[in-house]
Amino acid sequence: MKLKKTIRTLHRWLGLITGLPFFLIALTGSLYAFQEEIQDFGRQDYKIENSGLIPRKPSEVQKVAERLIPEKTLHAVLYPKTGKAAEAIFYERGQEYYEKVYIHPENLEILGHEDLTKGFFPFVLQGHYYLWLPPKIGHPFVAIVCLVFLFIGLSGLFIWWPKNKKARKQRFTIKWKSVNWKRKNYDLHQVLGFYLLIFAMVFSITGLVWGFDWFRNSYYAISSGGESFQEFEMPLPENPGDSLSQAHAMDQVFYRMWREYPKAEYIEVHPAIDSLGTIAANANPDASTYWKTDYRYFEPHHLKELEVNHIWGRFENAGFADKLMRMNYDIHVGAIGGLPGKILAFLVSLILASLPITGFLIWYGRKIKARKKTKQKDFLRPKAWLLRSS
Q1: H helical segments located in the chain
Q2: How far, in Å, are 153, 182, 187, 194, 201 from residue 198 at the CA level?
Q3: Helix, strand or coil for residue 78?
Q4: Is the torsion defined by CA of 181, 183, 189, 192 positive or negative?
Q5: Hey, CA dihedral for 106, 107, 110, 111, is it positive or negative?
Q6: How confident is the model over 34-87, as pLDDT tens digits?
Q7: Residue 191, exposed/middle/buried by CB under 10 A (0-12, 13-18, 19+)?
Q8: d(CA 201, CA 216)
């Protein structure tokens, strides 16, 4: 009984302390669930009719885009196979910009320019990742909230689970006909919390993979049978020497990928950092997810393919743990289950956001009830002046 009382106390106070941050994380997660579909709907001007011709070279797309944004670093050129413009993506880790220039892949016409750091969804994403705090503060804080919520969810199950089978059956349903709003609120917190526990654990675990390196490394070690997680690292050319020009090498890699992946829904090629740097490219057979993507790396001279020992290599070389790590984003946002998965992620996140509210109301209701009992006792207790007069 002491253990259950201690866990109940921790559940209550940790829930009260992290309730508001968790509410914001869950709410922003639900709002972000359909951001790709909503944003894609708003990009009708960037839709095109493909003639079936081979697209223009990525070096040509790069030149057009850099004339529009000359002061930024090109991260990649992405070619959707049908119906969409090519994307020149400007991004560099640690920098405060993330922009796209949409270019017709056949006639190089600029169709649009988008700053992906501004607008509604970037604002929502900043809240979900950092709670609108500076990243160095917000990132670990959000990770701590996820870790605490993992305990809150499991402790809630421990507190809720009754020994009596009859009582257990009663706790699986919400008593909507009850006239007492406190009873309805209690059921909303307990019953919904029970049914959504498995989803809440999935969201927390996949979030913690990004939140803490030690958690990610442990998660990978467990799922791989003891292997160590390898950080992403761009492979270096084995024999630096006479090389093709950076632009020509990137073009050759793109056309090779275009031939070898006729069924890919998009192909992306990354320019090398310098004339002797490695050229990266990837091909995704399913644009709605990321985990099946083939990531490949080439020397700038002779275009020899380079092997890697991290998870971002060829899909066919990925083991179970590698695939699980690749799936992390798709699982977290529900994309792994297609549109039904995203709908489920949206609804679950929205209901999870309600749990801190119903939990607070349970605590507040009990606090008021305790105050009333205290006042009643004080009223019945003999007053000091009456004792003195007697």
Answers
A1: 2-32, 35-41, 58-68, 120-130, 135-160, 165-170, 181-195, 197-211, 213-224, 246-260, 320-326, 328-333, 338-380, 384-389
A2: 9, 26, 18, 8, 5
A3: strand
A4: negative
A5: negative
A6: 988 888 877 777 788 776 778 999 999 999 999 999 888 899 999 998 788 999
A7: middle
A8: 15
